[in-house]
Amino acid sequence: MAITQAMCTSFKSELLQGIHNFHNGSGGGTTTTTGSGNTYKIALYTSSATMSASTTAYATTNEISGTNYTAAGNTLTNVDPTTSGTTALTDFADTTWSTATITARGALIYNSSAAAGTAGRAVAVLDFGGDKTSTAGDFTVQFPAADASNAIIRIA
């Protein structure tokens, strides 16, 4: 069992199919407008989880449990898609589980919108490099800077 950090392969083809809309907010667009975007979430997983580029959807198997953690994770606030030079990018604001007593080895970012069959579709797997624990404290996932070299989702 292992968690391997990766952009999910299914996500890459779903982008070309127009399934994911990262415009900030919730809702969805039409074929001629961007709309207000899908809702993205981040769920935390134990070291018993097996996730990699081949992960296609959110699952509860080996999702963590603990004080102040709700199954399915936190809703993310995303940065509107933009370009920096020749790179298209989007990113998310840091997210925190407050006063939490939890241990996590990794996470899954996924599209939680129900529009157009997007619910639960995997975007990216995050590997924390080891178990991370909070005891009655804040558990924060810090996202990198929203630029062409660091944003969590970059297309160059």
Structure, explained:
5% of the residues lie in helices and 41% in strands. The chain has 156 residues and is mainly beta. It is globular and about 40 Å long. Strand 4 (78-84) and strand 5 form a beta hairpin. The longest helix has 8 residues, at 9-16. It has one domain. The protein is built from 1 helix and 8 strands. Strands 1-7-6-2-3 form a 5-stranded antiparallel beta sheet. Strands 4-5-8 form a 3-stranded antiparallel beta sheet, with no helix packed on it.
The largest beta-sheet arranges its strands as 1-7-6-2-3
What is the rounded Rg?
15 Å
Low-confidence residue ranges: 26-32
**Beta-strand share of residues:** 35-45%
| Total number of distinct structural domains | 1
Can you give the helix content as a percent range? under 10%
Q: Sheet bearing the most strands, described?
A: 5 strands, antiparallel
Order of helices and strands: EHEEEEEEE
Q: Report the count of strand segments.
A: 8
| Count of helical regions | 1
How confident is the prediction overall: mean pLDDT?
89
Please report the distance between the alpha carbons of the first and last residues: 31 Å
Oligomeric grouping of the chains = single chain
- Structural category is mainly beta
What attributes characterize this protein structure?
single chain, mainly beta, 8 strands, 156 residues, 5-stranded antiparallel sheet, globular, 3-stranded antiparallel sheet
Write the layout of secondary structure elements.
Layout: E1 6-7, H1 9-16, E2 40-45, E3 74-75, E4 78-84, E5 87-92, E6 95-111, E7 121-141, E8 153-155
Antiparallel strand pairs: 1-7, 2-3, 2-6, 4-5, 5-8, 6-7
